[in-house]
Amino acid sequence: MNTTTITTPNFEVVSHHAFGDVLLNTSTNQKSLHATVTIQPGQVISKFHAGITQSYATYLTVQTGVDKHITLQPEFLQYINHSCEPNVFFDTTTFELVCLRPLQPGDELTFFYPSTEWDMSSPFVCNCQSKECLQLINGASHLDQSTLNKYRLTDFIKHQADNKTAV
């Protein structure tokens, strides 16, 4: 794998990790995780585990059950931001971060928040600017089945969607 450190005038490296760097956008004060190596679809990028498990969602948790939300460990994975065209997926059954689309050094790692969240604690208007952008991101429960079918979803979200459809 090739290793590259990303630096641009608007970004500074906050921390280095095996496959990526956490960058701070000095214009917006937002952090994001960017690849420093080439990563192929299907490749397991990282294992993760629960730091804290709690019964309620926050903007930093990932949902793994009806009343089960975890903080991610290693902690730097929390800087994987949302996109309506994600390139990574948090598999909460195997606790693996999986590559969905080819990543090159410098690419930001992004995931589809409703792939893990049924109802989000902090809905927001998306600005990913993809042609498929959904605009309002508030959780999988607010999306129709045809939209959900376009994404890789956690087993928990698939189960919730199947129960919603069956009702």
Annotation keywords:
167 residues; three-stranded antiparallel beta sheet
Q: Please trace the helix and strand order, writing H or E for each element.
A: EEEEEEEEEEEEEHH
How many helices in DSSP terms?
A: 2
Strand content: 25-35%
Instruction: Please tell me the total number of domains.
Output: 1
Structural class: mainly beta
**How many strands, what sense, and barrel or not for the largest sheet?**
3 strands, antiparallel
Number of strands: 13
Q: Radius of gyration, Cα only, in angstroms?
A: 16 Å
Report the average pLDDT across residues.
93
Q: What spatial order of strands do you see in the largest sheet?
A: 1-2-3
- Identify the overall geometry: globular
List the uncertain runs. none
Distance between the termini: 48 Å
Helix content: under 10%
Task: Provide a descriptive summary of the structure in words.
With 167 residues, the protein is mainly β. It has one domain. It is 10% helix and 33% strand. It is built from 2 helices and 13 strands; from the N terminus they run E-E-E-E-E-E-E-E-E-E-E-E-E-H-H. It has a 3-stranded antiparallel beta sheet with strand order 1-2-3, with no helix packed on it. The chain has a 3-stranded antiparallel beta sheet with strand order 4-10-9, with no helix packed on it. A hairpin with a 4-residue loop joins strand 9 and strand 10. The longest helix is centred in the last third of the chain and has 12 residues. The mean pLDDT is 93.
